[in-house]
Design goal:
The structure is a single chain. The chain is mostly helical. Helices cover about 75% and strands about 5% of the residues. The chain contains nine helices and two strands. It has a two-stranded antiparallel ribbon. A hairpin with a 4-residue loop joins strand 1 and strand 2. The protein is elongated and about 55 Å long. About 5% of the residues have low confidence.
């Protein structure tokens, strides 16, 4: 979301735009490495607990990102937040597998194309909805980020993320239930 504000960030933090790209690089690298640790942890401690911890830390880390006094601080905080932000990637597939039968995860849809009645088969289902986030985020994020940067300052991208992530975290605390069967059974025993 903050890519449209790279020039503003570089000017505000007295650095080059190339250096500011390091914040995105750190975030994406951590986003890729996070699932290597978080996915196995969810098999041990349960998905809900991991979601709540990571959602909370990710939401909190948006505050120091918005207040970053230097490019070094921005890169460091963005890199750490990428790790905790990867919990959806790490556990999303497992959560869907816990909650839905394989036939409900993806099912075939026949599509009529251009009135020529060419039969195409597409796959949809709950997994299709899950994939909308990773597919639409990189598409819509720069659009919304550009609007925010144009009318406000780059720091407001992270203040808005703080608000959205905090709402998401509160909703998760209220409504997110454990989905991993061994943890549910262990909780029932106690």
């Amino acid at each position: 979301m903050f890519v449209p504000g790279i020039a503003q960030i570089a000017e505000d933090l007295n650095t080059s735009t190339h250096t500011v790209v390091g914040a995105t690089t750190g975030f994406v690298v951590s986003l890729g490495l996070g699932p290597l640790i978080l996915a196995p942890l969810s098999e041990t401690f349960g998905r809900r607990k991991l979601y709540l911890i990571c959602f909370s830390i990710f939401a909190f880390l948006q505050i120091p990102t918005a207040l970053s006094p230097s490019i070094e601080a921005l890169i460091a905080v963005r890199s750490v937040s990428g790790f905790f932000g990867s919990v959806g990637i790490a556990n999303g597939g497992g959560t869907i597998s816990d909650m839905f039968h394989p036939s409900e995860r993806a099912y075939e849809i026949d599509i009529l194309f251009f009135r020529r009645f060419i039969k195409l088969t597409a796959y949809s289902g709950i997994f299709g909805w899950y994939l909308l986030g990773p597919l639409l985020g990189p598409t819509l994020g720069p659009l919304f980020g550009g609007l925010i940067v144009q009318h406000l300052k780059w720091r407001w991208v992270f203040w808005l993320l703080t608000i959205i992530c905090t709402i998401n975290t509160v909703l998760a605390f209220l409504f997110l239930k454990e989905s991993y069967a061994p943890v549910i059974l262990e909780n029932r025993k106690q």
